[in-house]
Amino acid sequence: MSDDQEPVDYLARHWQTGSSQLPEKIEELVALCAGSSENAQLYRDMLLEVIRMAQADRNRWDAKILLQTIRELERSFARLALFKRRRKVTVFGSARTAPTHALYQLAKDMGQTLSQHDYMTITGGGGGIMAAAHEGAGVDNSLGFNITLPFEQRANTIVRGTEHELAFKFFFLRKLFFVKEADALILCPGGFGTLDETLEVLTLVQTGKSPLVPIILLDEPNGRYWDSLLSFFREQLHSAGYIQANDFNLLTLVKSPAAAMQEVLGFYRNFHSARWLGKDYLLRLNQPLTSEALAQLPSTFGSLCRQDGFIQEEQGIAGDEPELSSLAGLRFAFNGRDQGTLRSLIDFVNQAENLKNRDTA
User: Fold this and answer.
1) Residue-wise over 130-142: b if at least 16 C-beta within 10 A, else e?
2) What is the spatial distance between Cα 111 and Cα 156, in angstroms, rounded to a whole number?
């Protein structure tokens, strides 16, 4: 580069409108395809980002990554819309677990138990624990998020070639949907990949980057796989101050599919879901809490609030999605940090004695 040439700063480059009338053309395009949609502004912003990238004329590899990411996301959203509003549980575990191993039967029983309670089973779509869970669940209650690799990589025979198989090119998108679609996460023993998923989902939930859902460690009755990991967490992580005591609330060790299922069902006994609504955090509840239970919240869970306290809405939640308007709500200014204590609050709102309409819960 010569002295009289200025470096190209893509981050500082302004959107070049010139005489191309790009703003008007974008408005026209959005109006044609999504003018009446409440997402119109979001689509407009997406188009603007693509235009900025085109004007910067980034290298071909960057452009191909963006294109493949958009394609894969849109295709996945469309496919998973077929199973919208169905509860789903992601099951992780080793692809190397042989059908003769006791853990294979354990995973098969887990898939069957989930299907009996109308939960779909999500796995990576491969063999071992993944095939076992799908075998127990059956194809109608299974989703396989397979990964496309340069060498031969095929989904298990349960989901292969059906609308229940979804193949991904990028690992990061596959990981996104493992967590995004899950109402609970069940982890069976496995290798580096399983441990990677375990630590990743714990990190996502602990930092509030992923919704709080049950994280269940499933092992054989006499198995020591997860006990050993939990011992490491206590002796090395907690004792050194790397994690807090209440972080252990985020995961539960069980030794049977029945116990795992009860953990999932108990989590959704009264708690429905959660979201940020403006500056408030909202717990959606199937039934409102009693006045006695509400009175306990400030002293027991007040550390969760940045300010004020807890506000219950019994007759629909103002500003929430219309289809969920029949639910009760508990609002508070969540500090966004103490996910372990938040899990304890969810356990509290699920206790039968705290429900105002406990007879109908």
Assistant:
1) bbbbbbbbebebb
2) 14
- In our burial notation (b when 16+ CB lie closer than 10 A, e otherwise), range 311-331 reads ebbeeebeebeeeeeebbbbb
Q: Report the side by side order of strands in the sheet with 184-187.
A: 165-168, 142-147, 120-123, 88-92, 184-187, 215-218, 251-254
How does DSSP assign 189-211, residue by residue?
A: S-SHHHHHHHHHHHHHHHTTSS-
Q: What is the side-by-side order of every strand in the sheet holding 280-285?
A: 271-277, 280-285, 328-332, 311-313
pLDDT at residue 10 in the model: 45
Mean pLDDT for each consecutive 10-residue tract of the chain (361 residues)? 47 49 87 90 92 90 95 96 94 96 98 98 96 98 91 83 94 95 98 96 95 97 97 98 96 98 98 92 96 97 94 83 87 95 98 82 49
Q: Please give the pLDDT value at position 282.
A: 94
Q: Single out the residue of 168, 186, 79 nearest to residue 130, CA to CA.
A: 186
Structural contact between residues 146 and 165, judged by C-beta atoms closer than 8 angstroms:
yes
The whole-angstrom separation of Cα 174 and Cα 167 is 8
Whole-prediction pTM value? 0.89
**Whole-angstrom Cα distance, residue 120 to residue 113?**
10
Residue-by-residue DSSP string for 231-257: HHIIIIIITTTSS-GGGGGGEEEESSH
What tokens were used for 359? 């007879």
Q: Minimal CA–CA distance to 101: which of 223, 261, 254?
A: 223
- List strand residue ranges (DSSP E) for the chain, in order: 88-92, 120-123, 142-147, 165-168, 184-187, 215-218, 251-254, 271-277, 280-285, 311-313, 328-332
55: left (phi over 0), alpha (psi -120 to 50) or beta: alpha
Calculate the CA dihedral of residues 340, 343, 344, 347 and round it to 10 degrees.
Answer: -160
Query: How far does CA 220 lie from the centroid of its chain?
Result: 26
What was the pLDDT predicted at 9?
Answer: 47
Contact 130, 123 (CB under 8 A): yes
Task: Give the integer Cα–Cα distance in Å for 329 and 314.
Answer: 6
